[in-house]
Amino acid sequence: MNKNITKVLLVAIALISLVSAPTVSAATYKDLKWGNQMYKVVIAGGVTAVNGKTISVLATNGSNYTVDITNAKITVKKQSFIYGSLMVNDQVTINGQLGNNNNITAKYLDITVKVPTYLTVDGQIVGLTNDSMTVLANDGTNYNVLKSNASLTINGQAADLSKLNGGDKLTVNGVLVGVNKISAQSINISISSASTQIYGRVISTDLDGKNISLRWDNGAVYTVYVGNAQILLSGKLAGLSDLKSGNQINITGQWLNGSTFLAKTVTGTLNTSCSNSYNQGYRNHRTNSTSTNCGCTR
């Protein structure tokens, strides 16, 4: 008698368990584990959409899931996830609780393959080293920008990274590699089309860097980036190599900062004797404004 009652009770408990268990589709069953009276799911797949704290994932089993990540612990290759955000095409592994209609409440989310987070930052250089610079963005954020592998253009013309100076206003395009840390791919400086004119004497030329050192009459020395600027000497087209130490030149262009000028046009007198008799010519200019000993126009 007692044995029969026991059997009836066992059958009843089994039937109750079957009725209370949620229905699981064949497509997702292989990803599910039973425990603590609820289904727990482990899926792997790619992110197909991101909407705030809800993401869509196409799992490797072919099923689509809607995942609530509000309270999930997020890692990247099981390491702390401290910058960037989930992106479409990120590959993820998710541990969580399966609800109806393939909805998952995630407890853990690990990004196994991270899609690069690209940024464009407009701002101004406030710090500069050989390999990096600090850029104060227009929104007030300070970024540490790694610049060694970046290309630089100034008004659309390729330039050497050495032309970057504190105070330059620029646009940085790159990949986020840390908290407010960017590995720059391209840097662009745009100068207003309005021109300024400066005058001075050539101290030296740098053919590789495409720039000249220019001394004003007040003794101040400035760097002029010539680049592809038009150079006219004695009314004829000339090259940077034709500019000699001591040549008096007029330059139109724009200031990049307090000590560097971007040239659009360079004009002067083609006279190689300027380079050989700079000191005498300069003295003649200082004592006699009509002197033309060195062929340079004061």
Task: Report what the structure shows.
The protein has three domains: 17-113, OB fold (Dihydrolipoamide Acetyltransferase, E2P); 118-189, Nucleic acid-binding proteins (OB fold (Dihydrolipoamide Acetyltransferase, E2P), Beta Barrel), CATH 2.40.50.140; 196-287, Nucleic acid-binding proteins (OB fold (Dihydrolipoamide Acetyltransferase, E2P), Beta Barrel), CATH 2.40.50. It starts with a helix and ends in an 11-residue tail after the last helix. It has helices spanning 2-20, 26-29, 273-276, 278-287, and strands at 32-35, 38-51, 54-59, 64-68, 73-76, 79-80, 91-98, 103-113, 118-128, 132-137, 142-146, 151-154, 157-159, 169-178, 181-189, 196-206, 211-215, 221-225, 230-233, 236-238, 248-255, 260-268. By secondary structure, it is mainly β. Helix content is 12%, strand content 49%. The chain is built from four helices and 22 strands. β12 (151-154) and β13 (157-159) form a beta hairpin. Residues 13-37 and 272-298 have low confidence and may be disordered. Strands 2-3-4-8-7 form a five-stranded mixed barrel.
Brief rundown of the structure:
With 298 residues, the chain is mainly β. The chain is built from four helices and 22 strands.
In what range is the share of β-strand residues?
over 45%
Order of helices and strands: HHEEEEEEEEEEEEEEEEEEEEEEHH
**Oligomer classification:** single chain
What is the number of strand segments?
22
List keywords for this structure.
OB fold (Dihydrolipoamide Acetyltransferase, E2P); single chain; rod-shaped; 298 residues; mainly beta; 4 helices; five-stranded mixed β-barrel
